[in-house]
Amino acid sequence: MTSLTERGGLTTGRPVGRAVRRATAGGLGEGGGAGLAFRLEGAALGYGRDTVLRDVELDVAPGEVMVVVGASGSGKSTLLRALAGLLPAHEGRILAGGEPVTSPSADRAMVFQDDGLLPWRSVRRNVELPLGIRGVPRRERRRAAEEWIERVGLAKAADRLPRELSGGMRQRVQLARALVGAPRAVLMDEPFGALDAQTRAGMQRLLLDVLRDTAATVVFVTHDVDEALLLADRVAVLGRTGVRAVLEAPDDAGTDATARAALRERILEEL
Amino acid sequence: MTGARTTRRPPVPAAPAAAPVATDAVIGTGAPATASADAAVDASVTGADAATDAATALAAGGTAGRAAVRWTTRAASLLVAAGLWQVLTVTDARLWLRFDRLPTLDEIAGRFAGQLTTRLYYLDLVQSLIRILTGFALAAVAGITVGVLIARSRRAGDVLLPLVEVVRPIPAIALVPIAILLFPTDEQGIVFITFTAAFFPVMVSTRHAVRALPTLWEDAVRTLGGSRRHVLWNVVLPGTLPGVFGGLSVGMGVAWICVISAEMISGEFGVGYRTWHAYTVVDYPGVIVGMVTIGALGWLTSAVIELIGRRVTRWLPRAEGSRR
Fold first, then answer.
1. Least confident window among B220-229, B301-310, B313-322
2. Among candidates B296, B309, B174, B167, which has minimal Cα distance to B247?
3. Any chain A CB within 8 A of the CB of B44?
4. Is A167 helix (H, G, I), strand (E, B) or coil?
5. In terms of DSSP bridges, do strands A185-189 and B97-98 run parallel, antiparallel, or are they unpaired?
6. Strands (E), chain A
7. A198-230 residue pLDDT tens
8. Quick check: A206 and B219 CB within 8 A?
9. Does B37 contact A153 at a Cβ distance shorter than 8 Å?
10. Burial grade of B181 (CB within 10 A; 0-12, 13-18, 19 or more)
11. Which secondary structure element, helix H or strand E, spans residue B95, and what is its range?
12. Residue contact B220–A110, C-beta within 8 A
C-alpha cells in the first residue's frame, strides 16, 4: 500500500482536497459542465423483491469525491447502481442534479470492478464507445480517445484487445472510457478491488491525478478503509441499516498523520 | 463450435507453456510502486511486447513440424477408408454386408474423371450451391432476427415462441408436399425446405446466446448513455456471435441434408437429383460420384463458416498459441 504522504505527490506535492480540485477543474474534462449533486431521500434499494438497503439518506455535493465504505454485502454496489439509474428505488427518491433518476445517462459514467470493457473492441474502440453513442464524428472521436488513452498511459496498447491486457491496464481503459465523454459524475464500483497491491497503488495515484483535471463528482465504492482515506473528500460508512455516518476528510488528511489516524479510527468504529 | 474448440486443441504444444510467462510479465511489471504511473505502463507494455514476441518465436519453431504431422494424419484417415473400400469391392466381399454390388475405386475414379469434363456436372453443382446458399442466407438472417427478438422482447416471445416451437419438431423434408402446393416453382420449394432446415438451429442458438450474455456489458453501454438500439448493435449482436456461429455451423449441415433430399424428390437439376437419377438408371459409380461431390461441397461450405466464425470471434479468450 502506498503511504498516505504520497497523496497528490505526483505533480504538485500538495494534498488533493475539494478546494484544490475546484480551483484547477477544467482541462481534459472540458465541456463536462459542473459536477452533479446526488441526493437520496428515504430510499429503499434492492433487486427484484429483495430490499438490501432501507431509509438511505445521503447528499453528495457537486465535484466532491465521496467514498462509500462498507463490509461485503452491505449494499455498496446496490447504492451505486441506484445512482447510475440501473436500479429503481423501491421507496423514496434518488435525485441527480435535482432531477429524479429514472434511467442510466451518459452524465453518470460507471467504472465496474470486473471487466466492463467490450471484449471484441480494441482499447481504442472501447474508449471511443461513449462518443460513438453520442454521434461524435469519427475523426473527433478518435482524437479524443487517443488523448485519453495517452493520459492513462496506454498509448502503446491502443490496438490491443482487452484479453491481451493485465487487470490494471483494463481498469485504466475503463477509466479513460468513463472520462472521455466528460461526464458530470463518475460512479466507481470497487474498481481496484481485484488488483494486486502494487498495481492498485499505481491506479490510485493515476485516479487522483486524472481527477484533478475534471470537475466531475465521484462516488467511489470500496471495502478498503485506506483507499477511502487516500481518495475521499468525504467518507460515507454503510452498515446493515443504511448510511451510518458521513465523515468529513480534513483537507490535509494526506499529510497530517494524526488527522488521518483519527478519521481511520472513526470509520472503523462506524463499521 | 465451442465444443470443437476444446476437443480439437492440440496436445500440449510449446506455446501454452509460454503463455503464463507472458501474463506474469505484464502483471509483474504492471506498476512499480515508485515510478510514475505513465512510466509504469510504458514498462508494462514493453514487457508484454517482449513476452508476446518470445511466445510467438517459441510457437513458430514447432509449428511447421506439427502442422505437417497433423495434415499427414488427416490425409491418412481418408486414404485408409478409401483403401478399405477398394479391398472390399475388388474382392467382391460378402460379409453379410454385400460389397460385390458396389463399384470399385477405379471405376468410381474413371466415372468421376469423365463427369468432370461434362458441362452438366458443373451445372448441377452450381444449381445446388445456389439453392443452398439462398436458403441458408435467408435462414441466417431470419434465425438471428427471430432468436434475438424472442430472447429480448417478452411480447415478441409470446407471439413467436409457440409458433416456432410447434413447427420446429417437423422435419423440413416432411414439408415437401406443402412446398410443392405452396410455391409456383420447384426451385422456390427447394429453397424453402433448405431455409426451414437451417432456420431452427440458427434461431435456437441465437436465442440461447442472447440469454447467456453477461449483463455487465449491457450495463456498461447503458451507463455510457446507450439506448436499446445501441445495446443491440454494440453488445447483443457482437456478443452472441460465438453462439450464433455454432448455430450457423449446424444449420449448414442440416441445410445440405435437406437440399439434397428435396432435389431427389422434386428437382430437375442439382447434385441430389443427379445422384438419384444415376441410381434409377443403374449407374452405381455415378451414385458414388454424386455422394462424394455432396460430401466435398458440404465440407467446403462448413469450413468457410468455421473460418469466418473464427475470424469474427478472435476476441474470445483462448490458450496462447492454440491452433485448430
1. B313-322
2. B309
3. yes
4. helix
5. unpaired
6. 38-47, 50-60, 65-70, 91-96, 99-100, 108-111, 185-189, 217-222, 234-239, 242-248
7. 999 999 999 999 888 888 999 999 988 888 988
8. no
9. yes
10. exposed
11. strand B94-95
12. yes
CA distance A237 to A270: 7
Do B46 and A156 make contact, defined as CB atoms within 8 angstroms?
yes
Backbone angles phi, psi at B95, to 5 degrees: -110, 65
For residue B45, list chain A residues with Cβ-Cβ distance below 8 A: 154, 156-157
Do residues A96 and A33 lie in contact, with contact meaning Cβ atoms separated by under 8 Å? no
Owner of C-alpha cell 496506454: A154
* Locus of grid cell 448455430: B247
From A153's Cα to the closest Cα of chain B, the distance in A is 5
| Close Cβ partners of A118 (under 8 Å, ≥ 6 residues apart) | A125, A126, A129, A162, B217, B220, B221, B234, B235, B238, B239
User: In terms of pTM, does the model score above 0.80?
Assistant: no
CA distance, residue B142 to nearest chain A CA (Å): 24
Q: In sequence order, what are the residues at sequence separation of 6 or more whose Cβ sits closer than 8 angstroms to the Cβ of residue B260?
A: B128, B270, B271, B272, B275, B294
The predicted model gives A166-172 an average pLDDT of: 92
- Which residue in the block uniquely carries the three cell numbers 494424419? B73
- Partners of A203 on chain B (C-beta within 8 Å) are 31, 37
Q: How far apart are CA B304 and CA B252, in angstroms?
A: 10
Q: How far apart are CA B310 and CA A162, in angstroms?
A: 17
Q: Is B317 on the interface with A (CB under 8 A)?
A: yes
Dig out the grid coordinates for B90 from the structure: 475388388
